[in-house]
Amino acid sequence: MSHHIVAVKNLRHVYPDGTEALRDVSFRIHHGESVAIIGANGAGKSTLLLHLNGYLAPTSGEIQIGDFPLNKGTLPQIRRTVGMVFQDPDDQLFMPTVYDDVAFGPLNLGLSGGDLDRCVIEALERVGARHLVEKAPYHLSGGEKRRVAVATVLSMSPDILVLDEPTNGLDPYSRRQLIALLKEFRHTRIFTSHDLDMVLDLCERTIVLKDGEVRADGPTLEIFQDRELLEECRLEKPLSLQGCPVCGTRR
């Protein structure tokens, strides 16, 4: 299924102030993969994700989503293919009610009436948020906002799901619920996260960025067992892999 493939080649991005956020980044993600993109603050993670559905344009380099090279002419198709969940749900929820937020994308694709209602309800049911349909987004908890933000993306039936720091700001219970939800999805999934235990739980492959460059790309467990790599990239081993401070055994 080529429409699930994400191919990035020699991607470079320089912000207007001269900051070089990405330097010659290349990788290829295949159908059904769950891939984490990790790194210290400022490594270029969020900048990279914002390129995958055209929110940012490359300074140079190429991006291909499925059969389409990313350019101005293909943006509508690519944004239907790649569903982006932002780090802050408040950047995604802007309508008077949850229903309106989830309906916004399908409505702009031409859905209406009963078809639109079914699309909204199905997306909310998939994230366990059907009961929030008439709520105002600003009355929701952090975990509820995150679920609704995911529903706004699922309502567009994307082939590729991209999430920027999906557990950021969540309490432990909401975090566990979100991880359980994400495990159910069979999309091609791409995450950025500082929550490395979530990465270990959800992603079989991990790409490490350092100063805008790909420093490593491989099986997640191997990445987290490379002590020199973690130290170089200012990353900590997931808590679940750290030894007990008393007996040294793994938790």
What does it look like?
This protein is α/β, with parallel strands linked by helices. The chain has a domain at 2-90 and 159-241: Rossmann fold (3-Layer(aba) Sandwich), CATH 3.40.50. The chain is built from nine helices and ten strands. The chain has helices at residues 45-51, 75-81, 98-108, 113-126, 142-154, 172-184, 196-202, 220-224, 227-232; strands at residues 6-14, 20-29, 34-38, 60-65, 68-69, 82-85, 160-164, 188-192, 205-210, 213-219. A six-stranded mixed beta sheet has the order 6-7-8-3-9-10, sandwiched between helices. A hairpin with a 5-residue loop joins strand 1 (6-14) and strand 2. The longest helix has 14 residues, at 113-126. The termini are far apart.
The major pleated sheet works out as:
6 strands, mixed
Strand order of the largest sheet: 6-7-8-3-9-10
Write down the CATH class of the domain at 2-90 and 159-241: Alpha Beta
Taken from the alpha-carbon principal axes, the silhouette is globular
**In whole angstroms, how far apart are the ends?**
39 Å
Helix segment count? 9
Which radius of gyration do the C-alpha atoms yield?
19 Å
The topology string of helices and strands comes to: EEEHEEHEHHHEHEHEEHH
Query: Strand pairing plus helix content: what structural class?
Result: alpha/beta
Mean pLDDT: 91
